[in-house]
Amino acid sequence: MRVPRWSELRELIQFEAPTLDSRTRALQRAASVGDIRKIARRFTPRAVFDYTDGSAGEELALARQRHLFRCVEFHPSALVDVSEVDPSTTFLGKRVGLPIGFGPTGFTRMMHHAGEKATASVAARNNLVFVLSTLGTTSPEDLKDAVPDGNNWFQLYISKDRSITHDLVDRVEAAGYDTLELTIDTPVGGIRRRDIRNGLTVPPQLTPATAINMAMHPNWVWNALTTEPLEFSSLKSSQGTVGELLSRVFDASLTIDDVTWLRERWKGKLVVKGVQSVATATELSNTGVDAIVLSNHGGRQLDRAPIPLELLPAVKQAVPAAEVYIDGGITDGADALAAIALGAQGVFVGRAHLFGLMAGGAAGVQKLVDIFRDQVTTQMALLGVTNLNQLTPDHVRLRATPIR
Asked: Is 295 part of a structural domain of the chain?
C-alpha cells in the first residue's frame, strides 16, 4: 500500500487561520439566516432578542408566512446558459445590487450600540435600500451625515399631534431624503406577549430576572452604558411598553384622506407600507403613490393577518401597473425569488438585518448580505434565469405542505 506524502495531502487539506474571538468564529461558519439568528441569541439579552424575534398574540401570522415560503416549489428551466447571473434590479427606478432591502426597525441601538449607522453603511456599500424608522435611534439628519451616499428612505408614522408629523416631514425633506414610506397598519400597538412577560420598556426597566440575564451579557451591558442613552431621535415620549407607546402616540383616525394630503405635501417618492387587502391596494393606487408594500408588520400587529406572499397575485391582478414589494418571514434568497416570480419588484427584511446587527455589528450585517447574495445568485442559476425579469409565475408552485 502506498503512503501519501504530506506535500500531496497539503493540497487537499486546508486549515483556516485560527480566530480567538468566538463571535468572529461563529460568523465565519454561518451559512444561513438561521445560523445568524442563533449567534444573535447567544450574544444578546433575552428581552432584547425576544423583542426582535417575537410577534403579536400567539405569533400565528409569523409562523404562517414562514410556513408558506417553505411550501414554495420551484420549476427550473434546463439547458440555459447561466454562466453569468445578474441579481440586480431596480427599486423605484434606482439600480440596487440585490432584490432585498433593509426595512424599518425601531430601537435599533438596543440590539447593538452601532445601530442604524452600521446597517445603513453596509447597505450603501452593497448598493441596497435602507429604510430609517420614525422609531429609529438615529435621527434622519445624523444618518444622512454618516451615510451621505446611501439609498436611504424614511419611514413615517402619522402622529395624533399633526404638528409633530409636519415638522418631521420638513426635517426629512431638508436632510435630502427622496423617498418617504408611510406605514398604515399601526392604528394601535399589537399585543406582543414576549415584551409584556419580559417587562420590556424604553429605557429598559430592570427586573431581577432581567438584571440576571443581562449580567450574562457583559459586553452588551458595557456598550449600553458607555454609548449615548437609548432614545427615539424623532419621538421623545418613550415610556411604557412598545405597544402602549404606539397606542398613545400614533393616530387611530388615519384615513385615505391623510394619504392624499401626504401625496400632495411630499414631492419625492411616496411608498405605503402595511397594505393587507386588494381593496386597500386599489384605493392607494388612485392617490398616485409610487409603490406599496404588502406587509402585516412581520406579524407584530394583527395576529392571524393575511400573508403577503399569498395576497400578492391578487393585488398584482388588481393593480398591474403598481410597483409592489412584500416583507415578513423572509429568511432565504429563495423567498425573494419566489416573491419576484409572483409579481413583486423586491422584498424587505427587518428581523434578518437585526439578527446580523446583534450577531456582530456591521460585520454581522455584511455576513447576512453575503449569504443572501450567494443564495440569490446560486438559485437563479439553478432555476435557469440570468436576470430577475425572467422570473414568472410558471417558476413557482405553492404546495399544500412544506418541502422538508
From this structure: yes
> For the segment 187-217, what is each residue's pLDDT rounded down to a tens digit?
888 888 888 888 876 556 667 787 788 878 8
CA dihedral of 128, 129, 135, 138, whole degrees rounded to 10: 60
Name the residue with cell 446587527: 357
Whole-number Å distance between alpha carbons of 313 and 17: 48
What's CA 240's distance to the chain center, in Å? 24
- Taking the CA of residue 254 as centre, how many other CA atoms within 13 Å lie in the half-sphere pointing to its CB? 24
| 3-20 per-residue burial string, b: 16 or more CB within 10 A, e: under 16 | eeeeeeeeeeeeeeeeee
- In whole angstroms, what is the distance from residue 281 CA to residue 139 CA? 30
Give the C-alpha separation, 207 to 136, whole Å. 25
Q: Which residues are catalytic?
A: 297
* Bridge partners for 271 per DSSP: 181, 291
What domain count does the chain have?
1
Residue with cell 425569488: 337
Cβ atoms within 10 Å of 125's Cβ, excluding its own: 16
- Looking up residue 171, the CATH number of its domain turns out to be 3.20.20.70
**Cα(117)–Cα(143) distance, integer angstroms:** 6
Full domain range(s) for residue 356:
30-398
Total-model pTM: 0.91
